[in-house]
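User: I'm curious whether this sequence folds into something compact or stays loose and floppy. Could you predict its structure so I can see for myself?
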Amino acid sequence: MLDIAAEIAKFNSGGDAERLNMKYQRMRASPFSFLRGTCHLFHKRLPPGGVLEASPPTWVCGDMHLENFGSYKGGNRLVYFDVNDFDEACLAPSLYEIVRLLTSVLVAARICASAGQRRLRCAIRRSMPTVRHCASAKPARFIAALRRRGSEE
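Assistant: Here's the prediction. I'll summarize afterward.
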């Protein structure tokens, strides 16, 4: 059985004691904060083999959750909404990101005591066939066109 406290201490060993204390205090605040601070535990607990590991490898942020999105202005003067945290980035199966993001949505919904939690779970279940299809398909034509247009500017 996994000793969670020991795993967290091991992962964070060598860090600044004052900053680690602040991190641990934030992690105690809520299940969502704990999820945010323990991506290493999340990935360690994913089942080996199967559809997750079989998904195409891609560069992932490694710590995908609801609070790792934000907006910024690009060099082309357009405003983008995108992932904004890459300190855990790595080459990994693409579905790892989807599973972690959807987990963060479910954890956040529980915390918010969302009346629509059942609908949210249903929406996630219904979205999975599309996610599987997109993970195995070539980029859509409109994405390729946007990439070409972006490189011309």
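Summary: Strands lie at 57-60, 69-73, 79-83, 90-93. The chain has two domains: 1-45, 55-152.
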